[in-house]
Design a protein that fits this description.
Elements (H helix, E strand, L loop, with lengths): L2 H20 L2 H16 L4 H28 L20 H8 L2 H4 L3 E6 L5 H14 L4 E5 H13 L3 H9 L3 E7 L6 H14 L4 E6 L13 H12 L3 E6 L3 H13 L1
Parallel strand pairs: 1-4, 1-5, 2-3, 3-4
Helix pairs in contact: 1-2, 2-3, 3-6, 7-8, 7-9, 9-10
Length: 259
């Protein structure tokens, strides 16, 4: 091995150590290959450095988004682009795009999706969560029943304060299926506490199959129900997805197509 080659090997080993110390895995993996490309393409030192750091930033962003998506516990990955607004004429594509931009997150505004089963509420809630994850926000998706059960168990185990604090730290909390199952009074009170902790502090998405006038079917304490509605509707984006199930229409269309 020539002296020049030996020096190059030592330099690469030193760069590798620096990359590990600085936690730059993409630079570690690509600096040698991109250096050879830079020589072939006669790039300047600054052009090479810019391309190398850009690769690190892009890869780091992808990893962060992927982690946010995992942490969100989404039932499935759905995007706004996959939502067929022609099937839900009440839903405004312009309003959806505005929400996807994330301004409501900064303003801590609630989003309420109201409609019958199969009209796309969960799809839209999930899609907004995905959009927020791509903005590297801390997001969590859950059903109302699962959240209430966790809170009740935490209360029984004297862990309620810790669990409430964990839920409060998310920049966006999506609670699906509010209204599908009536709640015992203690469950309603705990859900009310989670929502109250977020009022004007962090964004909230709720999906429900009940109009507001029927929420007393789920929250039997009339005073608590009124206070809850007051909080979730204040400055809220209320989106009605309709009454006719898109899934049902799709099933009928498939059967007719196969007939």
């Amino acid at each position: 091995m020539t002296a020049h080659a030996s020096t190059a090997v030592l330099q690469q080993a030193t760069i590798q150590q620096y990359c590990r110390a600085l936690r730059m895995p993409t630079v570690l993996a690509q600096f040698a290959t991109m250096a050879e490309e830079a020589v072939r393409e006669k790039q300047s030192h600054l052009e090479y450095l810019e391309a190398l750091l850009q690769a690190e930033i892009e890869d780091r962003t992808q990893r962060q988004v992927a982690q946010r998506l995992r942490d969100a516990h989404l039932p499935r990955l759905k995007t706004l682009e996959e939502f067929d607004c022609s099937q839900c004429p009440k839903v405004s594509p312009t309003e959806l795009r505005g929400l996807a931009d994330g301004g409501y997150l900064d303003r801590a505004e609630p989003v309420i999706l109201i409609g019958e089963c199969g009209t796309g509420k969960t799809h839209l809630a999930t899609a907004l969560c995905v959009a927020a994850c791509h903005q590297k926000r801390r997001v969590r998706f859950t059903t109302a029943a699962a959240l209430v059960n966790e809170l009740i168990e935490a209360r029984q185990g004297a862990q309620l304060s810790r669990v409430l604090g964990r839920w409060a730290r998310y920049e966006l909390l999506a609670i699906d299926e509010v209204g599908y199952v009536p709640m015992a009074e203690i469950g309603a009170e705990l859900l009310f506490q989670v929502i109250t902790d977020r009022t004007e502090r962090a964004a909230l998405i709720l999906t429900t199959n009940l109009p507001f006038s029927e929420w007393t079917q789920v929250f039997p304490n009339t005073r608590l129900c009124k206070a809850l509605l007051d909080r979730v509707t204040d400055r809220a984006h209320i989106i009605e997805t309709g009454t006719e199930s898109y899934r049902f229409r799709r099933t009928i269309a498939k059967r007719k197509g196969g007939a």
